[in-house]
């Protein structure tokens, strides 16, 4: 029996706002527990939520970025459940009329481009965080995250493999970063993912019982959790025990390397959704829609096509550079400073990425000014410095913050391109190496390299080897 895997993802994205969704508390990460709280987000009786307009703007922008229809009339609902990290015992979310619906994201797989449909995007408030004491049977509650604005992006079950799930999430993260929707820091919980996974016989069209894997916060964990659950389910199918697969929510335990049942999956009616009476239905004003459209930057897929067309980059090179918004901007800055595009891309793919790996930093923290790298590229192209000097200058700028020209001057790295000067040195080397010259004239062409080496040595590597070679060959023939 050949099985296929069906995956749908629900991605929670913390929006990049300064204040919470219904109050003026800060959303800043890393504050002392319960520092960012007030009566509204603590859900004290008598308080009323006030919708943060910035949340609507960002949700609309996210919707446009992933090709959704915007519901200009939408509303907030109460989703009832009791959790200790949600003091009101209900979450304000959106149920039957979310802000965005029916979008899509195209992903690049090894089999080509594939469209993953987006069912909806809804806005909601985040819950708090439980901190369990390691030594005492005590749990603490940190409400700082309560009321931080979220959007939840829900895909259709269009994903057919774990690889596709990873590619989709990377592509989506990239789009959200470009559009400045969120900082997308998975390690801080700004981007988290729930995965629904089920299996079926290849050729079947109906969807079988699915299992939901909760709160996955890295690509690696997503891959591991899906692999494990895929294996668990396919074995049950293999032995005819698929009745044991029930609709439930399982938690991924990274340390134990397995999924653990948390609770039966609630259906919508279990939550007893009803319209939030404290917030009137939301109308997305034309002005917000127009502003969101205008503020949407060039998105990664469009940028990639442009890099290939305008700068003649290969598909692979363009993909790597565009996969990071900061690298893509850096690349264009270098080109704007006058470096040629092919060399700029080579420098990024080789040396910039080398430094990012060595120093374990992200592209946004790479601090060699584009202007200086452009200078290095231009001088190399004009044969003013050779390629090993170029790398030396690059590394020195990072260490010393000096300019390229200062370092070249200090270390006298400028190559001589002056033919008459080089000619005099060539003559001297020919004169001093009579025997080698004789061998060359007798047909041993390999000794030419030795003579060029002598020229480089005599000038401490500062002549242009290409010109030296040309002059030498001319004189010997
Ligand atoms: Zn508050």
TrEMBL record:
A Pfam short name: GatB_Yqey
Enzyme Commission number, as recorded: 6.3.5.-
Gene that encodes it: gatB
Function: Allows the formation of correctly charged Asn-tRNA(Asn) or Gln-tRNA(Gln) through the transamidation of misacylated Asp-tRNA(Asn) or Glu-tRNA(Gln) in organisms which lack either or both of asparaginyl-tRNA or glutaminyl-tRNA synthetases. The reaction takes place in the presence of glutamine and ATP through an activated phospho-Asp-tRNA(Asn) or phospho-Glu-tRNA(Gln).
Designated name of the protein: Aspartyl/glutamyl-tRNA(Asn/Gln) amidotransferase subunit B
Family listed: Belongs to the GatB/GatE family. GatB subfamily.
UniProt keyword annotation of Zinc-finger present: no
Catalytic activity: L-aspartyl-tRNA(Asn) + L-glutamine + ATP + H2O = L-asparaginyl-tRNA(Asn) + L-glutamate + ADP + phosphate + 2 H(+); L-glutamyl-tRNA(Gln) + L-glutamine + ATP + H2O = L-glutaminyl-tRNA(Gln) + L-glutamate + ADP + phosphate + H(+)
PANTHER family: GLUTAMYL-TRNA GLN AMIDOTRANSFERASE SUBUNIT B MITOCHONDRIAL AND PROKARYOTIC PET112-RELATED, GLUTAMYL-TRNA(GLN) AMIDOTRANSFERASE SUBUNIT B, MITOCHONDRIAL
Enzyme class: ligase
GO BP annotations, alphabetical order: glutaminyl-tRNAGln biosynthesis via transamidation; translation
Domain Asn/Gln amidotransferase: 329-476
GO molecular function term, any single one: glutaminyl-tRNA synthase (glutamine-hydrolyzing) activity
SUPFAM superfamilies xref list: GatB/YqeY motif (SSF89095), Glutamine synthetase/guanido kinase (SSF55931)
InterPro entries per record: Asn/Gln-tRNA_amidoTrfase_suB/E, Asn/Gln-tRNA_Trfase_suB/E_cat, Asn/Gln_amidotransferase, Asn/Gln_tRNA_amidoTrase-B-like, GatB, GatB_C_1, GatB_Yqey_C_2, Gln-tRNA_amidoTrfase_suB_CS
Known partners and oligomeric status: Heterotrimer of A, B and C subunits.
